[in-house]
Specification:
Order of helices and strands: HEEHEEHEEHEEEE
Largest sheet: 5 strands, antiparallel
Distance between the termini: 19 Å
Structural class: alpha+beta
Strand order of the largest sheet: 1-3-9-10-2
Oligomer: single chain
Radius of gyration: 18 Å
Helix content: 25-40%
Shape: globular
Number of strands: 10
Strand content: 15-25%
Length: 230
């Protein structure tokens, strides 16, 4: 692997930042993280109430995206890392009911992606570059949550687009929602109770929102974007 570049010809633009650039970036991140932690402490963000959806609730938002990108044998390690990170994050979110008017925060439910919690290296966008990072690939989950939230007519409280549009990603369709602990978050609220479920099937990441039947008929929608491992 050439210094500062990805080990895949298709990802030749994935250069790592220089030392000075990385130091400046980390300094800014520390400031943003401290500020966000203080604000969230005041706001008192809550987790949703865990448990299954009532039997008569119907699907109002559904995102199904493949866990694996096209075959990139030399990037396979980072794709495996992404899937493991998604598995950890899905377990952290699980399923539960978000009360009407309560804000859902991606990071409040997932928590910090650290090695201590079992997260591993995956690919993530940083300053417009694709780099290896602990917890890399979690944006596929935030993309799915954002997609389902739009389908369910949720109010989007906070959402950020990626710093670069990767071919084949949700960003090409304007359906992306990037996240970075803890200052770049995805947040939304619903005007009525909403049940959220995040799970991994054998080859697919599934995000499903259910609500009381009067909100509408059951819908089964697959996101048009095929995400890459970022």
């Amino acid at each position: 692997m050439t210094e500062g570049q990805a080990d895949d010809a298709d990802l030749a633009w994935a250069e790592t930042p220089g030392r000075l650039s990385a130091l400046l970036f980390q300094a800014k991140v520390a400031i943003f993280q401290t500020r966000r932690a203080a604000l969230d402490l005041v706001r008192g963000l809550k987790r949703f109430e865990p448990g299954p959806a009532p039997a008569d609730w119907v699907t109002v938002g559904l995102s199904r995206t493949p866990l694996w990108s096209e075959d990139r044998s030399r990037e396979h390690r980072h794709q495996r890392g992404k899937v493991e990170n998604l598995r950890r994050a899905a377990a952290a979110i699980g399923q539960g009911t978000l009360p009407a008017g309560q804000v859902f925060s991606f990071w409040r439910h997932v928590g910090r992606a650290s090695r201590r919690r079992g997260f591993v290296d995956g690919r993530m966008l940083k300053e417009g570059r694709l780099v290896p990072a602990i917890g890399g690939g979690l944006c596929q989950m935030s993309n799915g949550l954002y997609d389902a939230a739009l389908q369910a007519d949720c109010e989007i409280v906070e959402r950020h687009g990626h710093s670069r549009i990767v071919p084949g990603s949700a960003a090409e369709h304007g359906q992306d929602a990037t996240v970075a602990w803890n200052y770049v978050d995805l947040r939304f609220r619903s005007g009525s109770p909403l049940h959220l479920e995040v799970m991994l099937e054998a080859e697919t990441l599934v995000v499903r929102f259910r609500a009381p039947a009067p909100r509408g008929a059951t819908r089964s929608i697959t996101s048009p974007a095929t995400p890459v491992a970022v």
